[in-house]
Design goal:
This protein has 283 residues and is of the alpha/beta class. The chain has helices spanning 5-22, 82-93, 117-120, 140-147, 159-170, 178-182, 207-219, 230-234, 242-256; strands at residues 28-33, 40-45, 76-80, 102-107, 132-134.
């Protein structure tokens, strides 16, 4: 069963004090109440006296894992939702960050984020990697019971219906790139959409360019997307975009029994080649 936010918050504050006592960390990245907004926001704690600032609420949407990439040479601690833990495992497998530089406080039985459709179909409710944990683990039986009967948006759509759906959704896109910036596995130092030599995509927003951007971003996601829903949660226009990457996520699982970020030792999908692999395509 999922844990309560109140219980998780209490345990986080207690564990955070332990982490500061046991490790010489640069900072602990977690969630706290925004000083001016009053919302649940990422906070960087510097000492054990600040541990009481930590909270975990149903609006703790940002993926904290991505913040670590800026300070990756330093020893850092982080509060990790299960999806965050998968992003961290992926970073380690890709050599983006060293496991020795991480202290991970994982959230067991994550109760989910309000409004995040990814939480409704989440197949990882406990952290895949952690040094400390809070909350009670969710059993595989409990997880399977919650996921029974869950359907994914593209399952019953024809290609024509998909085109109509996304043409309608992407007509609202302003190319603000919030989806890209929120995604934990969109971590290129220089994104192709901002390249001018060569210029892959002209500046400005139009129906054709918006569709190209989203399709190109989606094609970077097979074997990388951890199905966290951060892209959709960050979109100021409320565009339904996650189903594209989710479709590829489930195709990889169905065809190759592959889920990104399950283990730091896991090879990436396109580097783990087998001559017996089927080649039905993803889309």
């Amino acid at each position: 069963m999922a844990n309560s936010y109140k219980e998780i918050t209490k345990e986080l504050q207690e564990i955070a004090a332990e982490v500061f006592a046991e490790h010489e960390i640069k900072h602990l990245v977690g969630f706290g109440r925004g000083e001016f907004s009053g919302l649940t926001e990422p906070v960087f704690l510097k000492n054990p006296e600040e541990a009481e600032r930590l909270i975990f609420q149903d609006d703790a949407a940002p993926m904290l894992s991505k913040y670590l990439l800026k300070y990756k040479p330093d020893l850092q601690a982080v509060v990790a939702k299960p999806c965050d833990s998968r992003a961290l495992a992926y970073y380690i497998s890709e050599g983006k960050i060293s496991r020795d530089n991480l202290v991970i406080i994982g959230i067991n039985g994550c109760p989910g984020i309000e409004g995040n459709t990814a939480c409704q179909e989440c197949d990882t409710r406990n952290p895949v990697i952690a040094d400390y944990t809070v909350g009670e683990e969710m059993s595989q039986q409990e997880l399977e019971a919650e996921l029974e009967g869950v359907k994914y948006l593209l399952e019953d759509m024809t290609p024509a219906e998909r085109k109509e759906h996304y043409s309608r959704e992407f007509s609202r896109c302003t190319q603000c790139y919030a989806c890209r910036d929120a995604c934990p596995v969109c971590y290129c130092d220089h994104c192709y959409v901002e390249s001018n030599q060569p210029e892959w995509l002209e500046e400005g927003s139009s129906a054709d360019k918006d569709m190209i951007f989203h399709l190109m971003r989606t094609m970077h996601m097979p074997g990388r997307c951890v199905n966290c829903g951060a892209c959709e949660m960050a979109c100021p226009e409320g565009i339904e975009m996650r189903s594209m990457t989710t479709h590829l996520y489930h195709r990889a699982k169905e065809l190759y029994n592959y889920r990104p970020g399950i283990s730091p030792e896991q090879p990436t999908l396109f580097s783990d080649f087998d001559k017996e692999d089927s080649e039905p395509g993803f889309l």
